[in-house]
Each structure stands twice: as structure tokens, then as C-alpha cells.
Specification:
The chain is α/β, with parallel strands linked by helices. It is built from nine helices and 14 strands. The protein binds pyridoxal-5'-phosphate.
């Protein structure tokens, strides 16, 4: 049988989101017949040799793409980054200890809440005073905190940390929405984690990249299912991992490698972001919603100067085959998510619509 291909849509969905077309094709094939085995990827044991190879490949690709030091471990768990919000204090905050957080958006706020369930939590920097439209600078991280947590890219509000804060304590980062979009110095982080469904693959897997040496010092007895050290020691096979999500993530990471790796992807992303933000700045009908220096290349948030013209603008972009640019309800307006797999042609299609709209309503 043949697998139907879909019509061309410019997919700006914020997550789950666009993945490379060739990954969709490989993923579809593996559902029908995994590597010529006569079995579907969906019906083989996670402890079978072929899947063990997939897991090992996915783990090594994370480390290779990010240039992680040898001792770092990679696990893929269910539960989303949201479970990660709770696992972080459980694994890094000492009993009777405390944590420090930067609160730069909705997801960061949720991470703070989970840490408060576990122990003393200090918000050392926040941009809540301006509806999270900037990245706080010039704050201090207390040297007696067990860790400092921040969110590298704020998916809903459209801001990104361009420079990572210098920290006297171990750093934990939720990189859900910009992992693999730019090089990072993995050594600076005790833990990097993120839901797969933005830059890495489909929903269902969460990646954790960590230094196992920095785990197991909290004095807290953990359920093994919440224990990152346990998951690392069991090679991400303590329980059934999200098999298909790991497989498709592996395919996407192989694609990133073919694209030239994270540095080449960063350049592509920069070109896409420049194209769109230049249009936002050039056309008086549009306004960016975030501080210019903190703009995210992943999620560009903007509004129309005249909100009454939204229906007219909506008609135009829908006609152009664009999907998924309505903003999150907490910001309103528009959000164009330009994850790794979004081609620059899709950004050009949106910019063309914006130009057309500006001419009509100038
Ligand atoms: C999407 C997102 C999350 C939530 O991930 P889930 O997998 O839905 O739990 C957390 N943090 C950031 C930065 C996100 O973009």
C-alpha cells in the first residue's frame, strides 16, 4: 500500500509542531514495516535488539548534537516537561535546602509552583511585572541555593535568554522550546530537559540530559520512577519508554545531523527570524510584543496596531495556506513558531501576506 501525502500547509503550530517531511515518511514506513523485519515499530518489545539500538542511537545523538561531555547521561521519559517541573526539586533540592528560580513565563511559573511543593523556593528574577515581555538581567543567585532553574525560551511570550546567567550553584534548564536550535555549553548545566514536541520530535517523550555525579545528594528517598539517577543507571529502560516518540525523535535528530548540526540550524533559524522580525518592524500595521533584544527566534509574538482588522488579516493568511499563528490567550494577537523544521519558504509566505495586508490597509 502507499501512504497518502498531505497537502502543503505552512505550519506555525507552537507544539506539537512541524517536523521534517522526510521524518514523517520514515516514521510512517516504520509503522508498516520496521527495517524490513515484518513487524511494526509499534509492536516490538522495548527490550528487543532493534529497539535497544534505537534507544542507544537516540541517546548518543542528543549528546553528539549538543557536544555533551562523556559522563553525561540521556534518558527519555513520559510525563512531559511538566513532570520534569516536579522531578527537578525532588532530585536536586536537599531535604531542608532551597532552590532559586527565574520566572519568565507561564512554564517557568509552573516550575516554581512545583518546587514550592517540595521546599523553600526563591524567585530571584521575574518579568511578571510586564506580562513576561522581557528577560530579567542583573540579578543575583544566592550561593546557598541547591540549584538555579530557568527556562531558556518562553514559548508563549516569545522571549529567549541570549546569554545564560552566571551561577554560583548548579544550573537546571527547561529547554523544551529551543533545544537543538543553537549550540550550548552542556558542561554549564547539571540538567537540561525538555518535552520532545517542539524541536525534537512528537509529543510523548521528555529528554533529560544530566551529569549523574550531581544527582543523589539530597538525602531524600525517592520513588524509583521519579529518580533520575535510577533512570540513567537503567539506560532509560527502568520501565517501558515512550518507544515511538523516541524513535521519531531519533529520526529528527538524524535529520538535524544531515542539516549540518546545531550550528548550521542556528544560522537557518536566525535567517528565518530576521525575515519575520524585519517585517514586523518595517510595517507600521504590526507591533512586536517583546523587548527587541530578548526576541525569540523560535516564537515570534506580535499584534496588529488596529485589532479591529484581525478578521481581515486572518482571512489573508488562511488563504495563503498558513496555519497556527493565533497567539496564546495570555498574550493575544499572533505567535509565529519557527521551529527547526519550518522552512524559510513558509516564513516568506507569511511575510508576503503581511506586506499584502499592509498595502491594503496602509
Ligand atoms: C511546551 C512547554 C512545556 C510543557 O511541556 P509538556 O510536555 O506539555 O509538559 C514546558 N516548558 C516549555 C518551555 C514549553 O515550551
Amino acid at each position: 500500500m502507499t501512504v497518502a501525502t498531505k497537502k502543503q500547509v505552512h505550519n506555525y503550530s507552537a507544539g506539537p509542531c512541524i517536523l521534517p517531511q522526510e521524518v514523517f515518511e520514515q516514521a510512517a514506513q516504520a509503522v508498516l514495516d520496521f527495517e524490513g523485519s515484518g513487524l511494526s515499530i509499534l509492536e516490538i518489545s522495548h527490550r528487543s535488539k532493534p529497539f535497544e539500538a534505537v534507544m542507544a542511537k537516540a541517546q548518543s545523538l542528543v549528546k553528539e548534537l549538543l557536544g555533551a561531555p562523556d559522563q553525561y547521561q540521556v534518558v527519555f521519559l513520559g510525563g512531559g516537561a511538566s513532570l520534569g517541573f516536579y522531578m527537578v526539586p525532588m532530585n536536586y533540592m536537599r531535604v531542608g535546602g532551597k532552590s532559586a528560580y527565574a520566572n519568565t513565563g507561564e512554564w517557568a511559573s509552573r516550575a516554581v509552583k512545583e518546587s514550592k511543593l517540595v521546599g523553600e523556593t526563591t524567585v530571584v528574577a521575574s518579568s511578571e511585572d510586564k506580562n513576561f515581555n522581557y528577560i530579567p538581567k542583573g540579578f543575583e543567585i544566592p550561593a546557598d541555593a541547591d540549584y538555579f532553574h530557568f527556562t531558556s525560551n518562553n514559548t508563549i511570550f516569545g522571549t529567549q535568554w541570549k546569554q545564560f546567567p552566571k551561577s554560583p550553584v548548579p544550573v537546571v534548564c527547561d529547554m523544551s522550546s529551543d533545544i537543538f536550535s543553537r549550540p550550548v555549553q552542556v558542561n554549564d548545566f547539571a540538567l537540561i530537559y525538555g518535552g520532545a514536541q517542539k524541536n525534537m520530535g512528537p509529543a510523548g517523550a521528555t529528554v533529560y540530559l544530566f551529569d549523574p555525579e550531581r544527582l543523589g545528594h539530597t538525602g531524600r528517598k525517592l520513588s524509583p520512577i521519579l529518580d533520575l539517577k535510577n533512570h540513567g543507571a537503567k539506560e532509560s529502560m527502568y520501565n517501558t519508554p515512550p518507544v515511538y516518540a523516541v524513535y521519531v525523535s531519533m529520526l529528527t535528530m538524524e535529520w538535524m545531523k544531515r542539516m549540518g548540526g546545531v550550528s548550521a540550524i542556528e544560522q537557518r533559524n536566525a535567517a528565518k527570524a530576521k525575515l519575520l522580525y524585519d517585517a514586523i518592524d518595517r510595517l507600521p500595521q504590526f507591533n512586536g510584543t517583546t523587548a527587541v533584544e530578548d526576541r525569540s527566534p523560535m516564537n515570534a509574538t506580535f499584534v496588529l496596531n488596529d485589532a479591529a482588522l484581525e478578521p481581515a488579516f486572518d482571512t489573508l493568511w488562511k488563504e495563503a495556506g498558513i496555519s497556527g499563528i493565533r497567539g496564546h490567550r495570555s498574550v493575544g494577537g499572533y505567535r509565529a513558531s519557527m521551529y527547526n523544521a519550518l522552512p524559510i519558504e513558509s516564513v516568506q509566505a507569511l511575510v508576503d501576506v503581511m506586506d499584502h495586508f499592509a498595502r491594503k490597509h496602509g
